[in-house]
């Protein structure tokens, strides 16, 4: 799964979306579906990690001059 970890967020999301599409079609063998699922779980983890890293970078940028970090929840359409 080393190639999975080296993917950009966008690449990982695109690959994950492709896996979901394949799985939804239902024309894979059980072994193929399990392998796709395992890869999808790994890609999900990569995406989550990259999002956490991005959040940390944003918090650094928003750090006040006195060294205190002020954070606010990021509002999305889903909240």
Could you explain the architecture of this structure?
The protein has one domain: Helix Hairpins (Orthogonal Bundle), CATH 1.10.287. Helix 2 packs antiparallel against helix 3. It is mainly alpha-helical and 79 residues long. It has three helices and no strands. The two termini are 32 Å apart.
Keywords for this structure?
79 residues; mainly alpha; Helix Hairpins; 0% strand; elongated
Helix and strand layout, with pairings?
Blueprint: H1 2-5, H2 9-25, H3 30-61
Helix pairs in contact: 2-3
Radius of gyration: 17 Å
Helix content range of the residues, please?
55-70%
Mean pLDDT level: 84
Oligomeric state, counting identical vs distinct chains: single chain
CATH topology: Helix Hairpins
Individual helix count: 3
The secondary-structure element order is HHH
Describe the main β-sheet briefly.
Answer: none
Architecture per CATH nomenclature, i.e. the level-2 architecture: Orthogonal Bundle
Task: Give a summary of the structure in a few sentences.
The protein has 79 residues and is mainly α.
